[in-house]
Amino acid sequence: MWNIYIVGYMGSGKTSLGRQLAQQLQIPCIDLDCQIEQVQNQSISAIFEQHGEIYFRELERAALLQSFETDRTIISTGGGAPIYKNNMQLMNEEGITIYLNADTQTLFNRLKYGKAKRPILANLNDEELLQFIDKHLNPRKPIYETAQLQLDASLPLPLLCVKVNAFLCAM
Ligand code: S3P
What we know:
Elements: E1 4-7, H1 14-25, E2 29-31, H2 32-40, H3 44-51, H4 53-67, E3 74-76, H5 87-94, E4 96-101, H6 104-114, H7 126-144, E5 149-152, H8 157-170
Parallel strand pairs: 1-3, 1-4, 2-3, 4-5
Helix pairs in contact: 1-8, 2-4, 3-4, 6-7
The chain binds shikimate-3-phosphate (S3P).
């Protein structure tokens, strides 16, 4: 079986879905951000602060390229990974891709409490956060939407897993 790549905006629930699916399918799960933090021995925020975004994007891309060496693994990607260079195209060619599609309001409700560890959002107040998501999501959407399976991120986790399993069975 191929790797499964979960893509979507920050706060769409990629890590939770990845963990749950991995448990059900009895296969390993990698969170690319966590892997980068472990290898670099630094938080994503510290990497952004010390080296800047492009440096982080290259680390993220290197981790993604390395993932193509494995199979039967669920990979939760950071929200910006598909947007950088041809990362999304490569994921589509090398694996199964799932887009967790969430609207601005849903993302705002989740990110309000989870923005601190996300350097792109950390300094925004609530009003700025809502505006930022609204603007930032639009150019990303067409890239996320090239995924092979799109799921509504507001569905309960068990139902999302059922839908993924049905998709995998139909392949
Ligand atoms: C980012 C998303 C984050 C992390 C970094 C940048 C983005 O991952 O990679 O803070 O540009 O969307 P999550 O989507 O897991 O929060």
